[in-house]
Design goal:
The complex is a heterotrimer of chains A (134), B (110) and C (100). With 134 residues, chain A is of the alpha/beta class. Helix content of chain A is 22%, strand content 18%. The chains are: A alpha/beta (134), B mainly alpha (110), C alpha/beta (100).
């Protein structure tokens, strides 16, 4: 029996899977870059692409634990990074130089991350089809 | 733009999604379902409550693909599939169910 | 690959981070306020001159002109390109990383 046309198939295989890297370099609340960058990651994730997300420079502050924005009247979007796993986005990297400069370790983040050096990340970057910066 | 329910004013956007998640009530859900010509059964409530739980944890409305996957984990394959969800919410489960659940429109939703 | 930088090195870390990521054979294009990095006789000159020796450095001419930076003030080894040159660089190199 034919399905009505407007119901998508479950688990459609990805045809044109491209490698997307999102590079986050901005702290979360001072500008809109971090939130917009996260929305772009979610949209890309909904389309079943090969997504990796890198946090470097002040971007590492986007995922530090213990954020509480109530008193500044802004939405705390740090819990949303934990949703990425459900979008099959599990390649989350932080740059070692950036976290060392800020006195942070891999345990300080709300999501499991892989710590890589700038040189290692530069190698991954060169393999991408698309790099999106925020 | 706003809904008026039991003397309460609840702001919504141009597509009918309420703008303040904390203003949601079960009465609002029933009211919105009626506007969408959906008769809320326990199966509808299961999805709506699941979406509210998801939002509470992650602060976003899930994409449909993610909703299907998480429903499968929570309730099994007979409920975690597109057909089941589209039968409950014919105009798009993410969009219709999210609206009734008081969530924002899913990012990049269909 | 091609890296682009559009922020002044005096205000942002964009150029410093870019130089941490650039690899042999990569091209780097400076435009908008990024062009302030190409001037001789300022605190950033030594680092940028070293980068120019290691990578292919380009600067967008119209942005130099707009900011009153003369060609003779530009560090040796940095090539000045026009908008067409910008497009060629993007087309010739692999992925593009914009350091914003």
């Amino acid at each position: 029996m034919a399905e009505p046309v407007d119901i998508p198939e479950d688990d459609e295989p990805g045809e044109d899977v491209k490698k997307f890297m999102f590079v986050n370099r901005r702290a979360p609340y001072g500008t809109i870059y971090a939130l917009e960058g996260l929305e772009m990651v979610l949209i890309t994730g909904a389309f079943d692409q090969d997504v990796s997300v890198v946090f470097m420079d002040d971007g590492v502050f986007q995922i530090v634990k213990g954020q509480d924005t109530k008193a500044v009247n802004m939405k705390n979007f740090s819990p949303t990074y934990r949703a990425l796993e459900g979008y099959d986005i599990d390649k989350l990297y932080v740059e070692r130089e950036s976290i060392e400069a800020r006195g942070l370790t891999a345990e300080d983040f709300v999501v499991p991350v892989k710590v890589l050096s700038a040189a290692e990340l530069a190698g991954l970057m060169a393999e991408q089809h698309v790099i999106i910066s925020a | 733009m706003a809904y008026e329910i039991n003397g309460q004013t609840i702001e919504h956007d141009e597509e009918g999604f309420i703008t303040d998640v904390s203003q949601w009530t079960k009465e609002l859900a029933d009211y919105l379902a009626e506007k969408e010509t959906i008769n809320m059964t326990p199966e509808h409530w299961e999805v709506v409550n699941f979406l509210r739980g998801y939002y509470n944890e992650y602060q976003i409305a899930p994409a449909i693909r993610v909703l299907v996957k998480q429903m499968k984990v929570a309730f099994g394959p007979e409920k975690g599939n597109n057909k089941y969800l589209y039968e409950l919410f014919p105009y798009g489960p993410a969009k219709q169910a999210c609206k009734i659940a008081g969530l924002p429109k899913p990012t990049g939703c269909i | 690959m091609l890296h682009t930088v559009n922020k002044s090195p005096f205000e942002r870390t964009a150029l410093a981070t870019c130089l941490r990521y650039a690899r042999e054979g990569d091209s780097i294009l400076l435009y908008e306020d990024g062009v302030y990095a190409v001037r001789k006789a300022q605190s950033t000159t030594a680092d940028v001159a070293a980068a120019a020796a290691k990578f292919k450095l380009f600067v967008l001419g119209p942005d130099l002109d707009a900011r009153g930076v003369r060609p003779d003030q530009v560090i040796d080894g940095i090539r000045i390109v026009d908008y067409g040159g910008f497009v060629d660089l993007a087309a010739e190199n692999g992925p593009v990383q914009a350091w914003l």
